[in-house]
Specification:
Number of strands of chain A: 19
Radius of gyration of chain A: 26 Å
Oligomer: homodimer
Helix content of chain A: 25-40%
Largest interface: A-B, 126 and 125 residues
Shape of chain A: elongated
Strand content of chain A: 25-35%
Strand order of the largest sheet of chain A: 7-11-12-19-18-17-14-13
Number of helices of chain A: 12
Chain lengths: ~450, ~450
């Protein structure tokens, strides 16, 4: 009987394996995609794109046993050759090729010059050629960092006693009312796509005390801005037995500290490719909504129009102010007005026109909304009633409260927005593999 | 300026903290939900449900400074009391309560007896009271193990050089044709929910060499069986530079080995609560589709009807046969007929009526479908054409191949099915937090 016993180790080596095993002068086998070819006549540099980076291989007349013409850009190949220490090569070594095996060949030339360090290409063109444009080393590195953020979120929360949940994206009614919902037919019944796991994660606090989810959310908003998507990845958590809503901000700060450390430790290559220094997370200032509004109005001589919400420009200026005066990349803005908060937000007993809520601004952009939630069943019913809302469709949510819930709160982080400002991009589509917006449903 | 500096450490202790710090005789504070109260007169056992398990607390007349009547089942509370070693208690110790603080109270009595070890409740009733039924210790443990599987999948693949991706769930056309798709309107354009990240993960092999995703998939199938859901969590990976489709099975075996080890190490409490021994993964037999069919027909004297696919009963019998004859919990069934395979499956050059594909059966249930894919652009076009299919809507997918793709393959694992058979459940809804099926769109 034939059996499989585990991962098959390969004869071909990865960049880190060659580096760590000190193989200078040894023959090795490597594979990869032909990223670029620089033909110098009797010598040619064939740079392979591998998952760990670029690897310089050298074709030499008389040494390599094949014609350079056999190797096309965008082919995938396997080379056998000698490791040669070479400080000018991207990895500090190169491979002097002896033999080659072609694994696959492209059918047509590249539509974009992906081998350039910075592609001189519009966002539109990059998105229209996504499968190709992402092969650029810098484009790819953005998504490696995005992986690091998601990974940091999960690993940190596992360590803090959170349980990961998978809540349904198809539902009968959503957490936050009827607007901006994608609607569909579900076996002859009306259904929606969830715009947040809010109700579910709260229900699960009664089960696991602390839960998180990393998954897609859907918003049928007709915004067409640089910071909105109609489908994005939300990093959500919800935690019970809190003493105050500051526990939630503290947990988020812990996540950011853990994650920046993880990026510096395990994603150093990608940070270097993009020339990024991770932001300061050792202490994050917190400021009340009303105070922040006043500070910005005063410092930048700006009239404020909407007293119940922050305009994007105000968020930008709050970020600027705290950067200038305290060197802070992040600011927690707390105590948003009750009037603009969702029904489940807990009012501040000291002044019920404000809620125990917060946004986290990262360099002037809102990347998180969170806060303490109402946990008492009667209080929740009273709030729903005071808002003139119906409980219909919320029976299951309310049942959790009817049968006892601890004091709790949580937050949602927009993964793409956090990635965007970490990297210093100005359009959230730059850090979304396949963005969905008003005009884009493909690729 | 007020600042947040990181996670706030709590004065209340978790079970593992009390256990590891040897606090016998010391006063501690603990919080939790009142899981059950056993009133013995002058003494009462108040069992708290905490995220790490059940904690026995003892109310004693004259010692505890409050009346037992103040404590209701399903309330959440904070107790201060003395740690007392007690072998008969669930954790080997109990808390002799001195003072209590009520954090929240339920509004109504429980609809289900969640404090019973095994709830004597139908699946239907459990699903209709999901926020409450999951508070049962055994119910909850199933989802802890499910977390362990997802976590094991990711951690193992990070270690193998895979990059995590987030691909869109809203799309214009799906990987595997038009049947069984949920349809919706996307800003006045027809859209669908993806039934698999297949196209996207293949495209991303050209970028990252190895990718994975853990996310929801949507299937509008009108099946009403114990093993089908209309929304489920798929664990997908795709890897480039494979030498054979056996590399994929080897990677999956590695994942299973890593994950069972993780469960035994970090989820031992949950395994014990459910009385589970993890299955054997040191070697997994592989058998060809046609041979498996014959073996089952012979051993169980069973006629086979459909020569191109395995009926569920045949899968069950293959599982049984390999369990009986080789003590195997898992079996790879390989080389499925081309006729029933998707267009992108690579045919076996030795006999093109079969593909280089496999299913993984776990105790007779298919939990994975995978295989090698066609990587040559012209070959892919020829296959599409031979099937009488259109390339319309596949331009972006095909572009990846047009511009060069390495030999590659991958798989998709149904998380709920794997969890179900690990735990020994017979209905996939038992291991789905909020199942979506023909009749169920809520809670």
């Amino acid at each position: 009987m034939k059996v499989i016993t585990g991962v098959i180790s390969k004869e071909t080596l990865e960049i880190s394996e060659i580096r760590s095993q000190n193989l200078n002068g040894c023959e090795v086998r490597v594979n990869g995609a032909v990223h670029t070819i620089r033909d110098m006549g009797e010598v040619a540099f064939i740079v392979l794109r591998k998952r760990e980076g670029l690897l310089q291989c050298v074709w030499e007349q008389g040494v390599s046993d094949f014609s350079l013409k056999e190797i096309k850009e965008a082919a995938t190949v396997e080379f056998a050759g000698i490791v040669n220490r070479e400080e000018r090569a991207p990895q500090g070594f190169e491979i002097r090729i002896r033999t080659a095996r072609i694994l696959s060949e492209p059918a047509e030339p590249m539509p974009l010059q992906i081998s350039k360090w910075k592609m001189n290409t519009s966002l539109e063109a990059k998105l229209n050629n996504r499968a190709v444009s992402l092969r650029n080393i810098r484009e790819r590195a953005k998504f490696r960092l995005q992986e690091g953020i998601t990974r940091g979120f999960r690993d940190f929360l596992y360590g803090q006693g959170f349980t990961e949940v998978h809540t349904p994206k198809l539902g009968a009614k959503s957490a936050e009312g009827g607007a901006n919902l994608f609607k569909l037919e579900y076996f002859h019944r009306p259904a929606i796509l969830q715009q947040s796991p809010q109700f579910y994660k709260q229900m699960m606090v009664g089960v696991f005390d602390r839960v998180f989810e990393t998954g897609p959310v859907f918003r049928a908003e007709k915004h067409n801005t640089k910071r909105h998507l109609n489908e994005y990845t939300s990093l959500d958590f919800e935690m019970g037995y809190i003493d105050s809503f500051e526990d939630i901000m503290a947990m988020e700060t812990g996540f950011l500290q853990y994650t920046m450390d993880l990026l510096n430790r395990e994603y150093a290559d990608d940070l270097e490719i993009l020339g990024i220094e991770t932001p300061r997370t050792d202490q994050i200032p917190q400021v009340r909504f009303d105070e922040a509004k006043q500070m910005v109005a005063k410092k930048y001589d700006r009239k404020f129009r909407n007293p119940f919400d922050l305009e994007p420009e105000e968020e930008f200026l709050i970020g600027k102010l705290f950067q200038e005066e305290y060197g802070a990349d992040f600011v927690f803005v707390t105590h948003y007005p009750s009037k603009k908060s969702p029904f489940y937000a807990m009012d501040d007993t000291a002044d019920p026109t404000y809620t125990l809520s917060f946004d986290l601004l990262f360099r002037g952009l809102e990347i998180t909304t969170g806060g303490q939630r109402i946990h008492d069943y009667h209080e929740l019913l009273a709030k729903i009633s005071a808002r003139g809302m119906e409980t219909e469709g919320m029976e299951h949510y309310l049942a959790a409260f009817k049968h006892g819930m601890p004091p709790h709160g949580g937050l949602g982080i927009g993964l793409e927005r956090l990635t965007m400002h970490l990297i210093g991009e100005e359009n959230v589509r730059e850090v979304t593999l396949f963005p969905r917006d008003l005009s884009r449903l493909e690729p």
